[in-house]
## 1
Amino acid sequence: MSSFNLVPIIILIAVLLIISSIVGRLNNSGKKVRWFFFGYLSLLVLSAIVYFLLPMEETQVGQMSTHEEFLEEMDEFYQKLNTGELDEIDPSYVLERWEFAFDGDALSIELGNQEDLNAVPIEVVAVEELQQEVIATYYQNSSHLLGISIAEYLSLPSIDLKHTTLEIIEPAPNELYFSSFKSTFPFRQYSGEKLMPDDIGYSSEIIIIQVPEGVSIEADEQIYVRE
Amino acid sequence: MSLNNVDIKRVIRQQFSYKCKANTSLFTSMIVIQLIAVLFSLSGTGMIGTSIGYNGVSIQFYSGDIVLVFTMIWAFITAIMLTTKTYTETDYVFVANHLTSNLSNIAFLFVASVIGAITSLLAVYLLKVVMLLFFDHGWMAASQEISVGQWVSGFLTTIFYLFMFSAIGYLIGQLTQRNKLFIVIIPAFIIGSLVIFVGSTILMDISQFYFNDSSFFSVFIKTVGTSFILFLISMVLSNGQEVRK
């Protein structure tokens, strides 16, 4: 997502050196200084034109949504989760789904390399309708940063069924870098926008493992098994 | 020669016009300062981090704050320079007194503030274009949408802030012209205040008073009122000096 590039800094330093040299040579003679000033003004106006012509839709990440919308979504999501209405959950919350054929009587669930125990909660649910199948679903009700969904950039765990053991392996460390432009402070003063917002992101995620009813579960203590 | 025989407005207009032409070199320093500010702004004005699921997420914030602050410093220094002998000498190309000299300086500083505001706002686009073209970042929430009214208020406020900082500089310049001891006293006072008021809320309160007010009318009264008072004190101080040193 990010690559720190030294090229623009080197270019800008070179530009500054050139400008300093030009300023020195101008010797503050009126006409040349005026040309220099109008040259700078033209550069700024050109930058503004280029900025508005740049395809920002492609450069920006995701779409805007509000905090209130997120709270509403979260309420609805957990209500359906708690009442077992998994089929009613908005399909857009499903980031990944793993389906495995399973005909055993006992299932062992292990966390392969989970270092952060609080990373993502895992819950096992027995489903009456489910036959000879184990389904693991990674739900995320809109991970929002500054009101924008970044779900597509997130690394997810890998889940695999080996014989009667379901193994959940967390992904390699993943650091995502984003950038955001803010208005200059006299403008923020009136719009109420903050340079550093109090809340930058809201996300709620959970892995639900659906097993056929009657299968006995042996799981790590971090995994919650619904009775 | 008495000014009774001369049209004051005409003298001020002539002096102002002359200063606009003669002091264009002051704007070359503004250009260099703004470009340095753009360079500094490339490292961002703030960063915040969180974690989502198994992912660490960082957001770097960019703004034109550094460009504007540097332009304020330029306005402050420019105003001090206008009170120095090199610049005051030019006043006497015309029939002048302290009143016309000060008023034409204030008019010039106002125009400089307008130019500083326009260029510092446009310099933000230079920063944005450099960032977008050369940095491979995921850009998000470019900025909160602001209404036309908020934009106009923000632009005018930028001018008022620059003008107020030039008024502070002009007063300091006049003080140092009146007595060279102020060259030592003023920096000592500023540094001393910063040391004494570390941990106190006084500096924060002053900054909040001007920069955290969301009413344009109130900001207008505060900034223009402060500028008026500072310029008035400067004019009174300069009247106590000889016409030409």
Note: Chain A is about 30% helix and 30% strand.
## 2
Amino acid sequence: MIRFEHVSLEYTPGRFALRDVNFTLADGSFTFLTGHSGAGKSSLLKLITRLEKPTEGDISVDNIDYRSLKPRQEPQLRRQMGIVFQDNQLLHDRSVFDNVALPLIIGGYRLKDIQKRVNAALSRVALQHRAHDEPVLLSGGEQQRVGIARAVVAHPRVLLADEPTGNLDAQISAEIMQLLMQFSASGVTVLVATHDSGLLNTFNFPRLVLKQGRLSAQSVSAVNTGIQHQYHTEEQI
Amino acid sequence: MQKWAYTKRGYALAQSLSALKRRAWSSLSTLLVFGITMALPALIFFTADSLSRLGASTVSEESLTVYLKLQTSDLDGAELARSLSTQEAIRNTQFISRDEALAVFQQQANIQDALNVLGENPLPGAIVVFPTRQSLEADTIETLAKRLNALPEVDRVQYDLKWVKRLQSLLNLGRSIGWVLAGFLTLTALLVIGNTVRLELLRRQHELEVSHLLGAERSFLHRPMIYSGILFGFLGGLVACLISLVTLKWLGTASASLASLYSSSFTLGTPGPEQLFLVVAAATLLGLLGAIAALYQPSSHLLPNRR
């Protein structure tokens, strides 16, 4: 579960990236985070991953209250999350297998577990046969699938995707979305930041719509079947 | 990656090794710069022992002559010589009785007529005192002379510290210059490693940022750089030893032929395994310190999000 309560982020005095944002995402939910460029999507993701600290308000993820979080606990928090980047951020000096294995090495897993989990993750994104290839030999869609495999290999409870289909065509974007939906169905809370209108029109999931750092009324426009979402918009406040 | 590379430490080592291998030429040139920089302090360290042995052997025949009072009997003189030889700072003694002194004197000068006039042997007995090698320092010898002079059987002590002092001054000067040079070159080696690690940080910034986002702790981000520093230090130390050994071999021939002109047996000795180990260990430590310095200041901004 991800909970934001009256969260504001002010980079410089008077310049708010986010202002009084309130929402709760239930476990296993699938939500779009949308808005124009500069609306505050990346800032919101940075707050969740603790790359930024809010100027005001409280954030909690999986009952971890960020106020009580010490700096040395932040890496551990990030290890409980999966992050999918727009440009996949793969390391091109190593194989697909080693890219996917990186979060597990960071987490201190044993080799046996690493092999098992990486093979399972690559199998879920249908890339087991490319395990020993270098990422540069893969297509854009395949590279993004490797990015997803890396994000989910440590079995995170929260999956954050920042424009995961940004550079991909419609068909491959749909494949990527199907993958993310599969993870959501298995209980992972998925938050996808996107401003891809095609994607938003095709998939009818709840949305957090940001406008100039505030959640807009449109945020309550969609409800995911069977999962409760609670949003507080500026209009409600 | 090899199987051992799937642990935190193994991963760091594998990354450091692969960086070395990937940029073989630049790594080699860094190692050569580091090795050459470290070679001079290593040479000073290796030759210090030989030079101090040269100093000691040159002054090993240095001695103090203790003249005994005329009334001291040969028996007492010989006994005193024996007792002195067991004392601290004294390597050996040699007693010269009054008769032996006279015999030597007669061989060296034609003074038989003068002796006939005197009627008796005017020369006192003497003890030649050879200090230990460790005591061949001006201050120690002066202390020893004072101690001997205070003995009731002793009339006076004669010694010449000129050579001891000269040689010691030269050795001290050489040692000081060596230390200053070694200090500067060590600092240079530290900067070489620091810069290499900073470049490595720049090259790996993308990987560091990704690892940071994936939940890597600071130690995980730092470790490959620390290992790179240690690796460069260790390998640079080996290069320094190699350069020093080749130089010593070359200088050894020249110094031996010079020594033979002075009928000296002086040779520049080959360093032992302990000395080689010490140089490699010192270089490795320098590599570690250089890496730490590069990671903490002023390169900290190169690491992701250090709040």
Note: Chain A has a mean pLDDT of 86.
